[in-house]
Amino acid sequence: MSYQRPNGHTFSLYLRGGAGTRRLDGSAAARGRPGVLCIMPQEHSSEWEITDFSQFVHLYVPDDQMRRMFAETFDRDARLMALPEVTFADAPALARTLRQMTQAMLAGGHLLAEEAMTQAINDFFVDPRYGGMRPCAISGGLAPHVRRRSLEYIEAHLGETIRLQDLAAIGQLSAFHFQRMFRASYGVSPHGWVAHRRVERAKSMLSGMDPIAQIASACGFSSQSHMTRAFKLGTGVTPSTYRQRQ
């Protein structure tokens, strides 16, 4: 098995077997076993030999989503995120969460699986052995006070039309430069961030009894069908299905 500079980050947890799996471009003595974790950052390259049965789960996370989650969770510049390459490591907390995610997916519990995935990413970042909470040199990007005011503006206007020009005016920047610097700081474009926050607000409102069409309007979607498309893209299920599972 060969991985050559793939897109996205991969978390791999061995569930069963694995003794016949070893990494050819690493330590020949290290072999897989139940409960060990491998982390393959975006654009890594590796060679593996697999000679017997194993069962494992792979969690694939696109780089922009990973950076957005990092910036949102820890209120830090997305460029501070750093993922190490890890082979056959013991990470009990992360392994437990990935198992929960797998069990939830197999049972059709998309909401529980989504929560477990978010927890898994958080567990990884805060783990002192494997996490990405390591400082690195950065330049450019939005100033901290502009980042804070931009997010406050977005949260306060999610139910309205949010224009790039209005966000750019917060930092007294051109729309082009604001968009470029926002992506550098948060890993996603302003549009991607707003879309994510609207879906998150919709998720919280779906625990109540408001009609879905009313929730769509309150979250800034142009129509109920617009919200349904965006919600399914972000969560894998429709708003009505999400509400039923709640």
Describe this structure as you would to a colleague.
This is AraC family transcriptional regulator. One of its GO terms (molecular function) is sequence-specific DNA binding. Keywords: DNA-binding, Transcription, Transcription regulation. InterPro entries: AraC_XylS_family_regulators, Homeodomain-like_sf, HTH_AraC, Tscrpt_reg_AraC-type_HTH. It comes from Rhizobium leguminosarum. The strands form two sheets. Strands 6-2-4-7 form a four-stranded antiparallel beta sheet. A three-stranded antiparallel beta sheet has the order 1-5-3, with no helix packed on it. It starts with a strand and ends with a helix. With 246 residues, the protein is an alpha+beta fold. It is globular. 48% of the residues lie in helices and 16% in strands. The model has no long low-confidence stretch (mean pLDDT 84). The chain folds into two domains: 2-126, Regulatory protein AraC (Jelly Rolls), CATH 2.60.120; 144-245, Orthogonal Bundle (Arc Repressor Mutant, subunit A), CATH 1.10.10.
Keyphrases for this structure?
246 residues, alpha+beta, Jelly Rolls, Arc Repressor Mutant, subunit A, four-stranded antiparallel β-sheet, 10 helices, 48% helix, transcription, transcription regulation, DNA-binding
Provide a brief overview of the structure.
Keywords: DNA-binding, Transcription, Transcription regulation. Helix content is 48%, strand content 16%.
